Every structure is written in C-alpha cells, then in structure tokens.
Amino acid sequence: MPSRNGETATTKGCRFGIWQDLPSVAVARCLSKCGWDFVVLDLQHGPMSWETAYECVHTLRCHSVGAWIRVGIDCPAEVQRALDIGADAVVAPMVNSVKMASLLADAAKYPPQGGRSLGGDCSLYRGDDYFSRANLETKLFVQIEHIEAARNAREMLAIEGIDGCFLGPTDLALSMGLPHDNFNGNEEHRRLVRQSIEACKANGKTACVNCYSREEAMRHAADGFDFVTHQSEVTLLISAGKDLLADLRLESSGSDGPPKPKHPAFARQKPPVDALAE
Fold first, then answer.
1. Residue 73 belongs to what domain range?
2. What is the DSSP code (8-state) at residue 118?
3. Structural domain contains residue 248
4. Which terminus of the chain, N or C, has less C-beta within 10 A?
C-alpha cells in the first residue's frame, strides 16, 4: 500500500499526511478516522515515548493508515528501534552528510544490504516472512533541511537503503539566513527545493515535504512531491477551535458585520443512510 510504505505516488497525485505531536493513542485513532494517508509520529520534537509510539503504530495500521516515525538527529539506533516497533517508514532529521546517510541506511536494512539486527515482534503480526520482505516494505527518508544537505542531496539519495528525502523548507530557509516565514519567494530557496526533487527523481527515490498552508500543499503536489504533510494535529485543533469560537461569538452577538462563512461544525449533517431507511 503506497501510503504505508512510502512508494512513489501514482499519476493521480500525491498522498497527504499529518504530524502527531500529542502522546496519545486516542489521538492516533481520531486521525486515522479522518482518512489521512499517513501519520508521522514526532519523537524528535514531541513528548511521545517509545511505548506510546508502539501503541499508536498498531492503532494506525489497524485502520490501514501509514505509520511513520520521526526519530532524533544522528540516531541510527533509533531508526532500527522505530522499525522494530512496526513503523512503515522512518524520517531521519537534519541529515547533512553522505557519511551520516550511510550509517542510517545501514541501520534501516537487514543483511546483506545493511546491518539491522533481527528482533522485535513484527513477524507476529506482519507474517513469518517479514524479515525477508522488510528491506523492500519499510522505508527510510532523510530530511533535507539544511543548505549542506541540499548540496549533498544527489549523492545521499544515491545510497542503497535511502528510499527518499523529506524536505523541511523552514529549517532550510533558516540555514540560508532567511526568516522562518515569507521565504517562499526567495529564488535560491526555490532552486534548492527543485534540486532536491530532481535528486530524488534521478535516483528513482520518493520525494516528501512539509508545508503550512493549502496553497503550499497544492504547489508542492504540482511540483512533483509524492508525499505532503500539512501541519500537526495540535495546530489543526487550535486553528479550528479558534475559528469555531469566533463564529460562535459573532453569531451570538448579533453583529451586523459582513457575512462570514459558517464553520463546518454549524453545517447541518444529513442523517446516516441507516436512519433514512428507518
């Protein structure tokens, strides 16, 4: 399944995912009900423990949602651990050198392709032949989020065991001396983004990217990215909550202000088919 294992997207378009920061299996269950193609459990920046990540991975997979994990910086051992607890794909942040990319690739693949140690309980729920299939089914994405990484992208993505890149546009901009926002118009930044996509395509690898708006998501999809993440569940919760509260206060105040589109929560839902049948 493409959304699970990070295969290149079909010609019909890219796949869309979301970051999960909150350390809760219930959140993973809710995100899976939304229909996201994949969810990235953020163990780099978020407070999630490995035990919680394990439970979230199994919850997502039960709902046929791709379970990805982002590990810490320069942590080959965490790549192996993430795969051992069942992740379909691992995102390795701030990979700037060919040497580090090689170490991460070695940790992600079983011999003879790499040096991943055989262990974990994946074979109990993914089949006795998991160990012979894992090198193809699981994916490792290195994050291109520094100007040095962008310069080394083509060589890093040529490494066997690196299945693609995951571009971090904001950190890339910061490494270039640009502000953390309003950098999309910078020509050098756009050139490095295109260069990363081209490096993926030249090596037959998968291109992923993070974004913060619908406009960005559509642009990245049009540019050729295979997988796009849009915000996290935390930012989604806060932004939707603020919009709904603003609508409630506006309607309750009887304001004569300009008409405002109603929040989706106000839309009257059609009864389910079963209810109509009754």
1. 2-232
2. P
3. no
4. C
pLDDT tens figures, 93-123: 999 999 999 999 999 999 999 999 999 898 8
Q: Tokens at residue 275, please?
A: 């209810």
- Strands 66-70 and 89-92 turn out to be parallel
pTM to 2 decimals?
0.86
Please check whether residue 153 lies inside any domain of the structure: yes
Q: Is the pLDDT of residue 250 over 50?
A: yes
Alpha helix (H) residue ranges in the chain: 2-5, 25-34, 50-62, 76-84, 98-108, 122-126, 130-137, 147-157, 169-175, 187-202, 214-223, 233-253, 273-277
Tens digits of residue pLDDT in 170-210: 999 999 999 888 888 889 999 999 999 999 999 999 999 99
- 25 or 7: which carries more pLDDT confidence? 25
For residue 94, the domain's CATH number is: 3.20.20.60
Distance of CA 209 to the CA centre of its chain: 8
Spatial distance between the Cα atoms of 226 and 9, rounded to a whole number of angstroms:
5
Whether 260 is in a domain gets the answer no
Determine the 3-state secondary structure of 44 from DSSP: coil
Average pLDDT over residues 45-67: 96
Work out how many domains the chain is built from and give that number. Answer: 1
What is the CA 234 to chain-centroid distance, rounded? 15
- Predicted confidence at residue 122, as pLDDT, reads 87
Cα–Cα distance, 264 to 278 (Å, whole number) = 26
Q: How far apart are CA 105 and CA 113, in angstroms?
A: 9
Examine residue 247 and state whether it is found in any structural domain, yes or no. no
Distances in Å between the alpha carbon of 258 and those of 220, 229, 231, 255? 33, 33, 29, 9
H or E segment at 206?
A: strand 206-211
